[in-house]
Design goal:
It is built from four helices and two strands; from the N terminus they run αααββα. It is mainly α. It is extended, with a radius of gyration of 18 Å.
Length: 91
Amino acid sequence: MDDPTSYFIYQISSSYWQLKDIPGPFWARFTNLQRVWWVRSKRAHEIHMSLHQEYGDCVRFGPNMVSVADPVAIPTIYPIRPGFPKVRTFP
């Protein structure tokens, strides 16, 4: 895709379809500009809490950002795995 317009449309549509079933504000599907406004207003934490009250435990905040407010879901999202095997010594 050499055409910038085609690339832009592809990026928007692919991010939209990947998270299309997660509820959230309309513009969160396409842009992060509303998040910039939330942070600049110094009320982002209040807005996040109100969106969770409106949409539930799982809310889409941006094209590629989802917020999960359920602590029970943490092991599913971040599974506990054993670390990397350690080498006792190097030659």
